Amino acid sequence: MATTSCDNGLMTLGKRIRKLREQRGMSQQELAELLGTTQQTIAYWESDKRKPRYEKLKKLASIFKVPVSYFLEEEHQPEWDKNASFVRGKVIPIPIYGEAQAGSFGGYTSPTPEQYFPTPDVMLKGLPPERVFWIRVEGDSMRPMFQPGDLVLVADPSWYEVKEGAPVVAVNGDGELTVKYYHHDRKNKVIILEPANPAYKPIVIPENKLHESEVLFFPIIAHTKVF
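RESULT FIELD:
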């Protein structure tokens, strides 16, 4: 669910952009020129009237030297289900940021959490809570490992390495997501995103097209079923 700049003091996406820009002593026009856009667009972003596309978020992250996940976090977490048993240091509310298609690229990412899911801290693999988030799986190309409706816990790739043969959430430049097994065929210089379900074909991305297609790979470190 989208959050406006005045919602309960939350650090919205627009506020984060403005904060970083002002810390650099940069004007909206200067930032717009670096991004190849207009001053008015920056103003819309900072007032949360519009949201930047994923490729612009990556450019913002590069300009301000922060991980992309910085723009997908909230400074103050809202209260979560009061009926859930919460043991501090044992169960942590981790945000769900959208859904990924298990067939091909699709789904979406939300700039602010849709909700928070109570997560045992052992699932975080020792990572800080702000470096992980949940994505909902849709489609059946990853059956039987992941079923439609399952949640996968993904990590910031700058904090947790993508491993050969392991499942990942791949995000393209349009902000579309897919869940697959990651294979790097160095001999043929391609990345192969392999489905678990043999009824689906793999997605093959040449190494020299990775930058052009702006695909990022987020390692899946845990998953759970939601009943």
